[in-house]
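Look at one record.

>
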Amino acid sequence: MALASAYGVKPAYFSTSLAGFTRPTQFARYVQLKLMPKATEPFKPLQVLLIQSKQRRLFFWRRSLLEASMSDILLEICAGSVTSCLAAQEGGAHRVEFCDNLLEGGTTPSYGQIAVARERLWIGLNVIIRPRGGDFLYTDLEYEVMQRDIIACKKLGVDGVVIGILTANGYVDIPRCKALVELASPMQVTFHRAFDVAQNPLKALEDVIATGCNRLLSSGQAATALEGAALLKTLQTAAGERLIVMPGAGVRSNNIAELVASTGCTEFHTSARLPFASQMRYCNPNVQMGIPGQDEYALIETNSELVKEIIAKASI
């Protein structure tokens, strides 16, 4: 506590919003961004904490508080912008999966988006590695882009990446995925919903495990996780301690408690988004720039209050 005071941070602050921290650097960002927003010098307390033994004890004390305060249910938010990333954090999410182009199922955000998100988030930040929408069969050129994006994420200090590659016959492309997992190390790797369009889900599960991925995002090969709950339960049981199965697709505040009970899973994925009106005062009704029928003057972003509601309902 004396050390906390020495850094100009009240000890009580160290028990605030701990549930999202999974790495020392995230805690450092929290202290710098949340507690010392006017600091003119870079503030990296945990670089010091990990050098001196007396200071190291404070880090382990902080970690024990984290473990004691974490909910049994972890919520990951699929965020389509930096704004949504920050709303997820404000709402108490444990991690974000950062994607661009959510209408296409998510593609890799720009370097600038990832960099800004990393600077402002103290919760976990995973980034999707997907060069385009459409299927999950990639050319050598697209695969090279994925490799470069993983290297960029690693340099930016991202916590994890989200991948998924299939063969033309609809099976997990083990060699390519395994190579990406090895390239991403020590970042965590999630296999995304490419799984949901793969053949033979139990074989696909074993193939995902063989790639070295840490986590599987799936709807249970159904339109929504609730409809695929039976398969999700089977996958979770089959995976055991080898892989985290994380239900996603259609996860809402009115069904997450049912999903927790029916699947036995402890991590869940949702976007928690709501529309809000554009601030444009002039709108040209004669020009459409995007997908036909899409309202370009209605923005959809993650809502922090909705995130809080989902977390609360998951714990009931």
Residues 53-69 form the longest helix (17 residues). The beta strands are 74-79, 95-98, 124-128, 160-163, 188-191, 215-218, 244-247, 267-270, 273-277, 298-302. The first strand starts at residue 74 and ends at 79. Confidence is low (pLDDT under 50) at residues 1-22, 35-70.
